[in-house]
Design goal:
Helix 3 runs antiparallel to helix 5. About 2% of the residues have low confidence. Helices cover 28% and strands 27% of the residues. The protein folds into two domains: 152 residues, Severin, CATH 3.40.20; 128 residues, Severin (3-Layer(aba) Sandwich), CATH 3.40.20. By secondary structure, it is α/β, with parallel strands linked by helices. The longest helix has 20 residues. The protein has eight helices and eleven strands.
Amino acid sequence: MSHQTGIRANEQLAKVFGKAKNGKFRVIKVSIENEQLSCGATAETKKDWERDYDKLIGPLLEKDVPCYILYRLDAKIPLGYSWLLISWTPDTASIRQKMVYASTKATLKTEFGSAYITEELHATTLDECTLEGYRRHKQDFAAPAPLTSREEELKELRKTEVHTEINTNTRHQTLGGINCPLSEATVAAVQEMVRGKHDYLQFRIDLEEEQIHVSRAAKVELADLPKQVPEDHARYHLFLFRHTHEGDYFESYVFVYSMPGYSCSVRERMMYSSCKAPFLDELAALGVEVVKKLEIDSGSELTEAFLQDELHPKKILHRPAFAKPKGPPNRGAKRLTRPTAED
């Protein structure tokens, strides 16, 4: 899975990039702040690139905070100097930070100029960011096969996987989903819904705690269901849809993921998208059999007709017979021919 976050370089960083291509800087630190690529620090050339490497890069790295480091090598290319891009993603960083930085890397390269970046290094430990670590990387990945931009993004996302022991009884946990824990109140509300106390639950993700909370538990009529969907934040909804179809009575659990477009922050969109599948597994473990999963932009979509069509799609019982198209209207009468003696 690979997604662009929509994060772009701010005006200050764009000016720094322009000066860097003229050889003014040796190193540039780039961080993601307020959903923008920002310049964290710069340093000018002191000696040659090997002597400058450890002195300039080491002080820029924070133990638990990811960042990008653009380091100018002394090799010349047709456009100017070649640059090394270091993606610093420590193992102690949160999964959310790893996802955002991995998904924004392609945008950073485009903003700076992909042609200038001739080498890349993905580092998770401080030792890998040293000159010795860079040389080991060069030896291990000498002459790599060329990759498309899509392949590069997938490779970067795989590097940020959470590594666990793998055997016949374990599964590898990757960034396919983030398992946010459920609060005690959330578990209790789901259990009460199974027992029949509620027919509607609304859930929110606390982005700081990375935990799922129940924000509303009530008896809600179908006509009032659209009013429950916020217009400025993403939410999960669980609704017990009581209805009849072709004379039969049904009670169906419907899971709704509401995302009101780009009015939500990048972090909120990514968290709700990534937590959905693990959250559905948690609901199943609590005894909720979700019959239908829906994604909507607005609460106005949740009408009875919409839910009926989603749960009971109309079937085409008889296909219409093929109708031969009529000929052109002015072609005249059909010609009749008499059989000849030879016939």
